[in-house]
Fold CoA transferase.
Amino acid sequence: MNKSNDQTQPPTGALAGVRIIDVSRVLGGPYCGQILADHGADVLKVEPPQGDETRAWGPPFEDGVASYFIGVNRNKRGLRLDLATPGGRDHLLDLLEDADVLLENFKTGTLEKWGIGYDTLKQKFPKLVHCRVSGYGADGPLGGLPGYDAAIQAISGIMSVNGEPDGQPLRVGLPVVDMVTGLNAAIGILLALQERNRSGLGQFVEASLFDCGLSLLHPHAANWFGDGRTPVLTGNAHPNIYPYDSFPTATSPIFLAVGNDRQFETLSTVLGEPSLATNTLFVTAGDRSTNRQELRQRLITLLAKRDCDELVTELGQKGVPCAAVLNVPQALTHPHTQHREMTVTIGSYTGIASPIKLQRTPASYRLPPPV
C-alpha cells in the first residue's frame, strides 16, 4: 500500500506546472481531473454552493461525504463558487488568468448563456485549453441532451451485448462509459497541450459520452461491419474466441482466456486429455469458436474434478491466461494488488492508485478529496 500523509508536498510528476480549473461534476470530468492531478497537475475543483451532487450519492458515507465522491476527487484543492452570479463568473475569469486548462461538463449553452462560452474565453485567454465532457455533443439529433452512463450504455449498444444468452440486456456493473470518457478527455487535454507547444494556442476539446460509448464496441462493431450479423448476448463468452469463458470447477469458478493453439494444447494436456487439441472439431481457433458448445461441455466435465486455485497456479506457470473469479474485497486485498502499489492512503483516505506508471516522474498522492 502506497502511503503518503504529507498533504503539502509539491507536485513533482510529469504535469507539474500545469494548472487546471475543474468545474465539472459527477464522474467523467472529475475522473479526468484526478488522472491529471495524480501526475502533478495543480487542479482546483470548483463546486457550486450546494456542492458536487455525488457528495450525497451514498451510502456509504465517510464523515458525511459519499464514498462515490471520495473515489474520484483526490489531489485537488477545493473552492465553492456560484457561477450563476456575476461575481462568481468574475472570480472564475480571475482564476483563468494563469490557468492552462478549463475542464467542465455544463449542459451545452449554459456557459454561453452566462457570457463565458468558448468563443468568449478564447478571445480573452488564447492559450487556454477548454475541455468539455458532454452527453451527446452540442448539435445533431440528440445534441445538447443530458447524458448519464447507463442511458449511454443503452443507446450505444453496450447493454445489448452484456448479459446471459437466455436473459435480458444488462448494464455493465460499473460506469464504464463515464470512466472511458474521462480517460479520453485526459488524452484530449494532453494532445491539446502538446500541440500548444508548437502553435502557442489553446483549443476546444470535447469528449462526449455517446461517442465514447460507441468507441467501446470492439469487436462487436467490427464483426457487424464484417458480416452484417447483429451481435447477441453471450454471457461471459467472447464472440470470436473459445475457450474464452468462465467455467465451474470443483471449488469455485475459473475464467479461461485461451487465445491461441499453443495455449489450447497446454490446457488440454494439463486437464489430462491432450487429444482435445488434435480433435478435428477443435484444431484451429475458428474450429473452437464454431464448435464452442461441444467444447464447453467437454471442458466442464474435465474441470469438475479440479481445484480452482491449484489449476490457476498450474496453468499460469505454463503460459495459459486464466484467473479465479474474485469479488471486490478479494481483488483489492490480493497480494499482487499490494505488490503493484495499487491502493493509496493519505491520512484517513484510501483509494485506488494511478495505473499509469512513469519511471522518472511517477504519480504522487498529496491531497485527500476536498472538504
Notes: Confidence is low (pLDDT under 50) at residues 1-7.
